[in-house]
Amino acid sequence: MKVIRPKAGPTEPEPWVSDQVISYFTMNWDMAKTFNAIEGIVDTFAGEGTFNDRFVKEADRNLGINLRSDIIDGLNDRLSLVQVIVPPKKINSQSNVYCIHVKNASQMKSEILPKMFEKLKSAGGPPMTSKLFGDATIYTIESRSEEAVEGRSIRLPQPAVCILDDQLILSDSLQALEDVIKFNSSGDGLLSESIEFKLVQDRIKAQLKNSDMSILAYQRPEESMRLMYDLATDPQNMDNLEQFAQNNPFFTALITAVRSKKLPPFEVIAKYLAPGGAFVVDEETGLHYTGFSMRRE
Predict the structure, then answer these.
(1) Does residue 239 sit within a domain?
(2) What is the number of structural domains in the chain?
(3) At CA 175, angle to CA 170 and CA 19, rounded to 5?
(4) Using the 8-state DSSP alphabet, how is residue 74 labeled?
């Protein structure tokens, strides 16, 4: 249980989180204690110093930094995950944006990230580039040219990372990361000011009473379903799906169902999909998880 180290802390969405996200998850966690606990477990079974020799030193060598002092000690014990839709809509248009709060953002921005970038760049592998976007420097792995991916039915991931305010932001989509930076500058349509989010947040606070939570989650199932609906009603996308369906029973059944029956307007489906939330509290009796969905009026 030493590995599981939740702690009470802030759960307000970061100022770059839009009210158009599919879901939002934030967690307060003692990273250093978890790291040390994992090291203790590995060393117990594999021998004293095994974790440091086989993992930590290897990471130091491959990344060109000191993993303990530069990364682990620099974490501010809060992680967030945001899921968004990256246009144009494709089967895997859903993108993840990860946020790690750090103690010394200026050092991470001016020293640690550039050091890691140069080390990884010189090690071979996929070509990597950096560019200034707004007030942030984005480090990314180059994707194929637009000509090579044009017409594909799936989105090709393009990992990207930057420092924004006091957070390390990572994503599997360069476009999603750029949208985060732009939204952080505009400040319009914040998730924290969304009526639906506030309703979920107020319900959580009512159940918590005087307790503090470690983890908060918020979901908008309507948006996930909207993506699937738009894909299912797009003739070109259905043609692309048929390519996957040749050896996939799920896609075969999906295509057959969609082509044989007309779907109702999305508004009919959406009224059954309400926002939901969840939270975790660390109490003397253990960790307590509660999840719920709101009701449409």
Answers:
(1) no
(2) 1
(3) 80
(4) G
